[in-house]
What does this fold into?
Amino acid sequence: MKTAFTVNGKRRAYAGPAMRRLLDVLREDLALPGTKEGCGEGECGACTVLLDGDAVVSCLVPVGQVAGRRVATVESLGRTERLGTLQEAFLAEGAAQCGICTPGMLMTASAYLRGGGTANAAEIRRGLAGNLCRCTGYQHIVRAVQKAARGSRPRREGGLGQARRPARRRR
Amino acid sequence: MRGDAGIATLLRPRTPTEALRLLAQHEGALPIAGGTDLMVGWNAGALAGRTFLDLSRLRDWSRVREAKGGVVLGALATHTQLLRHPLVRLRLPLLAEACATVGGVQIQNRGTLGGNLANASPAGDTFAPLAVYEASVLAVSKRGRREIALADFFTGPKRTSLAPDELIEAVRVPLPARPPTRRLFRKVGTRAAQAISKTVAAGLLWLRRDGGVEELRFALGSMAPTVRRLRAAEAFVRGRRLDPAVVREAVALVAKDVAPIDDVRSSAEYRLAVSRNLLLGFLDGR
It folds into this structure.
C-alpha cells in the first residue's frame, strides 16, 4: 500500500501497512519523535497533531486515511534556535514540567489560536480539555496560551509558527 | 497488543456505490470513519485480522442540509461540523450542545455522527437529543434504502438493526411545527471533557397558553441498554399543568422506562437520583 501525504510542508511517501497508526509512522519511519505517545487510546491528547489544520490524536488515525492530506507535528512550530511564539510563551511561563504532554498541548493550542481562539482563560481550558497534564501544571499552560494569544495579535505574516518574540521572564 | 497492521486490509472506496460493492464482497468488513472508537479496539488487539472499509472519502455523506420538513445530517459529519453548523445550532440546539460534550476537541474533529450511531454505546451522548427530536437513521445497501426509527435502530448495547451489507448514509431529523417552550441538554460525567456519561438527558417541552402541557419529550442515555424516552412520564403530564404534585408524580414515573446498572462509572441508585432531579428541574423550569 502506497500513501503520499504532506508532513510539515514536505511531501512524504509511505509504503507500508495502511492500518499502522499515524503516530508510529511519524516517529519510527519519518524520524519525527516530537509527537509523544501517552495513553494510546485517545484519552490524553499527548499525540495530538494537526490533520488539515484540525487537532487530532494520531494514535487513533490509521496512516492509510491521511493519503493526500496535510499533517503538522510539533516540529513545525519552531526550531531549537528559533522557537515559535507559542513555544516561547510556554518557556516564559514555565508551562512544561515533565514535558510528555507538552507537544500535544502545543499542537492543540496552536489549532485553538489559529481558529481565532482568544486569551479568555475559560475558553482556553475548554479548548485544551482533550489534553491531560499528569503533573497538573494547567495554570502555567493556560497562562502561556494567554500570553501567545495576546502576543500574536495583530497577526504577523507567517502566522504563529514563525513569528518570534523575545522571551520575557515574569518570575 | 495491537492488531498486526501487516496483514490488515484497509479498503478505500471513493463513492457510495463502490463502498457498498466492497462491503458486499468482503463479508465482515468493518466500516471506519473517524476511527475514534474503532482504533481503540484495534490498538488493544480486539480487531486483529479484520478487514476495514474506510468511508472517509465519501464526501457527499458529510453534508448537512435542509430537506422537506426537516434536516438531513450526513453520517460522516463530524461532531465539530455539527456543533458549528448554523442549521444545527439554530434548529437542533440540543444536538449541537451534545456534540460539544463528546470527548475533547480532537475526538470531536474526527468522530462522526454515523460512527457514533453504529457503535451504539448505551452512553452515546448524541442519542438523547436525537431521541427527543424523533430522528431516524437512513440506511443504504446494494438492495436499496430504508429509514429506521431511532427506537428500532438500537437493539442492545453495541448492537443495531443494521444488516451486514448496510451502511448508515444519514440521519433525518423532522423539525417540530413550533419551537419548544423549554429545552434541556445535560450530560453528567466525572469531568467536563473526555468523560463517559453516568447519565445524559435531553428534554423538549411545549406548553399551551393556559400553562397546560401540550407535549413533553424527555430522553435519557446511560440509563438502560439503549437510549430511552420516558414514555410514562411524558404521557402523564400531557394536558396537565405542572404544579408540584404533577411534577412529583412525573418524577416518580422515571423508573418505569429505565433500568440503570451499577458499573465502574456510577451506581444505579445515583444514576436514577440524578436523572429524576434533571427531570424535576426541567419541569419546574429551573
